[in-house]
Amino acid sequence: MKSLKDKKGFICDMDGVIYHGNKLLDGVKEFVDWLTENGKSYLFLTNSSERSPRELSQKLERLGLSVAEDHFYTSAMATASFLRSQNPNGSAYVIGEAGLINAIYGAGFSMNDVDPDYVVVGETSSYSYNKIEKAIRLVLKGAKLIGTNPDVTGPTEKGIAPATKALIAPIELATEKHAYFIGKPNPLMMRHAIKHLGVLREDAAIIGDRMDTDIIAGIESEIDTILVLSGISTRESVEDFPFRPDYIFNNVGDIVKQ
Fold it and tell me: How far apart are CA 54 and CA 77, in angstroms?
């Protein structure tokens, strides 16, 4: 535990770790206070693409936590950075919320529903048959298919909800094209996170609630891994995977109690 608490930087997932929907999870305030009081670098890294860093900061403020915008990095930001590196000043047809659309605009892309370079899919509550149908036509015409993250489901205060991989599946099936997913566990997202965190890889740890994204992302990036049981994965489901986290806690508050 001493080596864990001596880490200089922490990459922390949000959904299922910090909150469920609009409910702050147990131990979160104590954990964030500990990070601040001990001068730790920290980054909230989320596979969700719906909200911008400003919106995420404001959401935590409403939940009783004060966290500056520069402590957030989203799959929308990583997706926009990837698209800009691949095709500067390109265009995209986007199925997603404001956080994703604004990030893509910020990367110098334009919106295009006629002949885009990319079809980009993220979480959205405005998912519809018409949007799926249009996306299928555009991919068949040559647009490349991009998913902001490979999560099939995500936790909410009401239970489990479909996430990006579930939403993009009909497009993949109808076009027989496989999407490229940017978010965790893609090492590209993790490299962005370490760069933003400003510490060496060996001085960092990643905290998440999912074995299939957070923990494997840390293992493949050679970062110490912490699984919390406040979201998707359980102690029983850990046994279903051929890899293990370095640490398991009930919630992030238990990290600082040790």
Answer: 12
